[in-house]
Amino acid sequence: MAMLDDRHYMRPDYRPAGGGRFHASVTTVMMITLVVVFAVQQMDMAYGRAALMRWLALQPSDIAHGHVWELVTFQFLHENLLHLACNLVGLWCFGHYVEGRLGKFNFLKLYFLSGIAGGLLQTVLGLIFPNAFGFPTLGASAGICGLLAAFCMLEPEGTILAMFIIPLKARYLLYISTGVALFFTLVPTDPGMAHAAHLGGILFGVFYIRRGLDLMQNFSEWRMSRREARESKAARGARLSPFSTQRTKNDGSAELPPQEFMSQEVDPILDKISAHGIQSLTERERQILQAARNKMSKK
User: What is the value of pTM for the model shown?
Assistant: First the structure.
């Protein structure tokens, strides 16, 4: 059965090709950005009367009044130096690996959408239970919890050092982290810790990896079966019609046999995703991927 590591861009040591001599890790850039924003934040607190905190921290009542940008901006702010340091360690521990496995674009999408998911859960609970969850929320923890979940899903048998001391399998770390976040979301005894945001980030990270990798696994298996069928057909001496290329151009991809459809239409799109990210696809290319998915579900 085809595995994801069969594709070069899913290997841990993969680095996207591109022009230039220096390729900065997005994880490193994010860490530097958080440090710079924290410095600006401290200057604002000293000289600007904490205007950044009022406009950029996540406040449920603000979201209710349309301040939706706070779902993103709160991820760049931190309460104090210890808060920042803990998140930088988490980003460093999980970010580089996840970025290497998923690529820069998917890393950023996972990171920020996990943060937004965590912020949304915190906001909803804050509007329902303002005394327990209605306080301002800030920090990169929700996005980092998404990265933690992704790491544990990708390497469930990998061993990490919890608190840099206790060896622990990644899947157990995911169970423990989810359990702690869920318990303190249901029993909010510490108003200074946004456990609901952590829980939302973890749940989105799990969802993102399950959905994304399952789709890529299906494509990998389909491509392997197509390759095996093509090799078997070639061994029997079968040949394609000389009019097949012309027919494809005139009639469209919908009338192609499954093997030619995957080879001529889907393979180049998958290669484009690996090089430039899914955001580079045109509407027609997205429709072709959906058609391929439908073909696989009917197989």
Answer: 0.66
